Amino acid sequence: MSRISDAPTSRAIPVGPWTHDALRSPQAWSYPLKEEAPVFDETGFNVTGREFLIEWGDRSVPHTAHVPYFSPEHGEGWTASQIRKVDIARWIFGIRGSFSFMAGPNPLIQSERDREMAAAEDAYAKLAEFDWLGLDFELAPEGTTVTGRKGLTRRRLKLMSELREVMAEVLGRKQGEVVPDPRVYATFVSRRIEVGGLRVCEACQIIFATRVNRPASVCRTCRRHPPRYRYFPLVEGGWHTGARLGPPAHRFVNGRAGQPRKAFYTAICSSCERHFESNDARRHLCRNCGGPAGRVRRRRGGSPLGRQLYRFAGEGAAVSVGIRRADGSQGTISSNVHGMIETDDAEIASQLEGNNALRRID
Ligand SMILES: [Zn+2]
Ligand SMILES: [Zn+2]
Question: How many angstroms separate the CA atoms of 344 and 148, rounded?
Fold first, then answer.
């Protein structure tokens, strides 16, 4: 006799926010509009005498590609990410590039940042022009001369090869490392601007070398041991809202591929409905509800909040440490007058246990 169960079933889905195949054929494109906000004086009077002004076509902004994506929280859908100039600066110059659109503390640093900002703005403008010329070509009125069309195509091909250089320089220099900004890479690939022989792994986001014809989509390690999320999606009656890969322990050591990265799941506790994170896909109760004390409490119908007190002592007299709260926000927890950190939240206690500056007191 077979047993009938209404327990949710898991599904294995490959790790990664996109695939090369999906990027190369976006489901839709959206075009940025020109928006102008109305101006108010100090009494609140609308000086411009109109609401928002919205016009077709901001030609200084690239288009947005919509790529199919499955979210365990919301189900099937798309992601549509739009990159900014500072994202391109980070792509070219690494973390340093994140500061290129800010004022520098001294003239030397300021001139370096100005140079980086100019390079990012140049690549961004080329991307926008490339996109809009493509639309011009499609929307060209009947009777446009062959020479006119050829001119558009020639300009586009030139922009394409210049943008490919921006991409090739970074991919070549950072081979074996995690891609500096996966959204910039996705933006290029969705326009079919790719570099022969170099790709970013769909699963672990590491830049790897591959053959030029019929390139691989995942790196060698991920091809051998494909990292997968074993989802119990919230939208299908499960408890997962998302997942991420653990720290990149995954490297090529002495030419041999390392281990794939571990998956961590964000879930909603099926007893207290608070968010928690776990590397065990089957876990659907947070540490407050799933521990021995929590089990008794749920039986007796008591408060869903933990009662057990966890106590920690730090190195110095006054200690303050960073924690991640149940709702995903960041915060700090400070020691009391006795120099001890106390919490009755088992999820926070497990974070404190991982902190090398603290030790648990029983
Ligand atoms: Zn990989
Ligand atoms: Zn719970």
Answer: 72
- Give the integer Cα–Cα distance in Å for 173 and 153: 30
Q: How far is the CA of 324 from the centre of ligand 2 (A)?
A: 16
Residue 179 CA to ligand 1 centre (angstroms): 11
| Residue 136 contacts residue 130 (beta carbons within 8 Å) | no
105 falls within a domain: yes
- On whether residue 294 sits in a domain, the answer given is no
Q: How far apart are CA 338 and CA 314, in angstroms?
A: 11
Cα(225) to ligand 2 centroid in Å equals: 33
Which ligand lies nearest to the CA atom of residue 304 in the structure? 2
Distance 285 CA to ligand 2 centre (A): 5
Tens-digit pLDDT profile for residues 268-307? 998 888 889 998 999 999 988 887 766 666 666 655 554 6
Ligand with minimal distance to 248 CA:
1
Closest ligand to Cα 252: 1
Q: Which of 128-137, 157-166, 351-360 is least confident?
A: 351-360
pTM value is 0.74
Ligand 2 center to residue 34 CA distance, Å? 47
Residue 195 Cα to ligand 1 middle (Å): 18
| Interval between CA 199 and ligand 1 midpoint (Å) | 10
Look at 8 and 177; give whichever has higher pLDDT. Answer: 177
Residue 328 is assigned to a structural domain of this protein: no
pLDDT tens-digit series, residues 35-87 = 878 888 888 888 877 777 777 888 999 999 998 888 888 888 888 878 999 99
Identify which has the larger pLDDT, 3 or 358. 358
Does 254 map to a domain?
no
**Ligand with the closest atom to the CA of 287:** 2
Determine the distance separating the centroid of ligand 2 and the alpha carbon of 25, expressed in angstroms: 42
Residue with tokens 């021995």: 292
Q: How many independent structural domains does the chain possess?
A: 1
String of DSSP letters for 189-258:
HTTT---TTEEE-TTT-BEEE--SSS--SS-HHHHHS--EEEE-BGGGTSSEEEEEE------EETTEE-
Please give the pLDDT value at position 298.
Answer: 65
Distance 33 CA to ligand 1 centre (A): 37
**Residue 113 lies in domain:** 16-199
DSSP symbol at 361 = E
